[in-house]
Amino acid sequence: MPSANAVLKKPIEMPAEPEKRVRNRAATEQAILNAAKRLLAEEGFQNFGINAVARGAGCDKQLIYRYYGGLDGLVEAIGTDLGSWVKDRIPDDTGGMFLLTYGDLMERLALLFLDALRADPLMRRIVAWEVSENTEQVRRLSEARSKALAGWIERMRGSLTPPKGIDTIGVNAMIFAAIQHLVLSAAVSGQCAGLVLKTSKDWEKAATALKRIVRGVYG
Amino acid sequence: MPSANAVLKKPIEMPAEPEKRVRNRAATEQAILNAAKRLLAEEGFQNFGINAVARGAGCDKQLIYRYYGGLDGLVEAIGTDLGSWVKDRIPDDTGGMFLLTYGDLMERLALLFLDALRADPLMRRIVAWEVSENTEQVRRLSEARSKALAGWIERMRGSLTPPKGIDTIGVNAMIFAAIQHLVLSAAVSGQCAGLVLKTSKDWEKAATALKRIVRGVYG
DNA sequence: CCAACCTGTCACCAGCCGGTGAATAACAAG
DNA sequence: CTTGTTATTCACCGGCTGGTGACAGGTTGG
Asked: I need a labelling partner for A116 at 20 to 30 A (CA). Which of A168, A206, B52, B65 fits?
């Protein structure tokens, strides 16, 4: 209940400023999509709804039904957008490094993913949503996210072959799970399992621990 | 309209089904608490509210205000209950094994925690809640949980000293984060980062990967 | 010019939510 | 029986939610 009710009512419009709203469907669609992403990123999925999005976009909720077919369609549009996330936020090359071993690769991937997730509130909210609910909406989002991520990893892997005798799928799942929970927990409470995660120094220590784990498995 | 409003009172109860409700405050309190835990475990924190709990407990919501001081107090009561969780669900001894090294200990702790979390829907919902919201309610729950967990680890550790030169806090945070996210994701979608987690065979592979990680760090 | 669209707004509905004041029913003591 | 206490329920409020039908106004084309 202590949600941010601070700004709900808008004051009466000043008559001198009719705030002419241009008739432009494409722009409105974009405004709605942006409002949805912003709202989800900043407020989380708890109070995410038709009314809130319409309020945030400054238009009538009816338009959301018209242009996106309701909240489901809007969420799906967000998911489609998600595909470009990896492209925008995670480097696609090896940063000039030569990745000689699978361990080199995984260490780099882990650190890149950690930073990218840390810098993207929307993605964090989506991950939190994924482990909290199992509706069709979330399943779609989740699928889009995992697909984009898998593609990125595949691209980065290149022709590097995984080591024999190790269940790389299982181990990598553990590593990525660790990163996701660590970042989520830190974003909410500033710590995770007794490890404080606030200053950049804290995060350096976390990165060191992460490297240690990756190197422990892959050498 | 007037004819419809003519009768406000419910018709006379059927004499065959008085559904006698015993007057027993302690029992009612317990029923409320049980309903709250059950509801949270089964439905998640999304639709968790005064009305839902009262409905589930089969009593009026007013009693929740009276006996627990509202939802906050009720959640706090759940948190208090949580302290006994570790005691009930995770063995407190070493199961007859001699834990010679810190690696032995951490491997055992990790596997025990994995199984315990996997078997406890309520705890899973609380963990998911923790990474989704940052209200006072959740903070209290989170604190109770982490305190109980830390106590358990401390007890299990006994006189075993952690290895030098390793940031055990950081590494252990990673390990426990991995377990939590893995179990949460699996409970919701049956997989995690491409790793399918449905059959017990799947979980054995996950356990193996987990052991590999722990042993990779702690030897 | 009028007619047909398209964009956007408004008013309204039923339903649920958290929250509260008062009535009611069971019991205990005098 | 009367009185008081305690447990329990009831009735109602304002506010927000998702959802829909009707309407206003600009834009286009015949």
From this structure: A168
Which of A69, A94, A122 finishes a domain?
A: A69
| B173·A206 Cβ contact <8 A | yes
Separation in Å: C15 C1' and B51 CA: 13
Do residue A104 and residue A197 come from a single domain? yes
Question: pLDDT tens for residues B171-206?
Answer: 999 999 999 999 999 999 999 999 999 999 999 999
The answer to whether residue A41 neighbours chain B at the CB level (below 8 Å) is no
**Domain co-membership, B64 together with B98:** no
Chain B touched by A169 (CB under 8 Å): yes
Does residue A7 reach within 7 angstroms of strand D, measured from its CB?
no
Beta strand B191-192 with B195-196 is antiparallel
Measured distance CA(B40)–CA(B38) in Å, rounded: 5
User: How confident is residue A83, by pLDDT bands cut at 50, 70 and 90?
Assistant: confident
CATH classification at residue B33? 1.10.10.60
Token code pair at residue A62:
């009816």
Range of the domain at B47: 22-69
At CB < 8 A and 24+ separation, what contacts does A35-44 make? Answer: A36/A74, A36/A75, A36/A77, A36/A78, A37/A78, A37/A81, A37/A122, A40/A78, A40/A122, A40/A125, A40/A126, A41/A121, A41/A122, A41/A125, A42/A121, A43/A3, A43/A4, A44/A125, A44/A128, A44/B132, A44/B133
Using the beta-carbon criterion (under 8 Å), do A193 and B133 form an inter-chain contact? no
If asked whether residues B49 and B87 sit together in one domain, one would say no
A49 alpha carbon, distance to own chain's centre: 18
At A64-74, the pLDDT tens digits run 999 999 999 99
Chosen domain end from B69, B100, B132: B69
Query: Counting one residue from A and one from B, how many pairs have CB atoms under 8 Å apart?
Result: 157
Question: Is residue A4's beta carbon less than 7 angstroms from any atom in nucleic acid strand D?
Answer: no
For residue A86, being part of any structural domain is answered with yes
With CA of B65 and C1' of each nucleotide, the nearest comes out as C19
Number of independent structural domains in chain A: 2
- Chain C, protein-covered positions (CB within 7 A): 6-11, 16-22, 26-27
Q: How far is the CA of B137 from the C1' of D22 (A)?
A: 44
Partners of residue B117 in chain A, C-beta under 8 Å: none
CA of B22 to C1' of C30 (A): 25
Q: Residue A215: list chain B partners with CB under 8 A.
A: 216
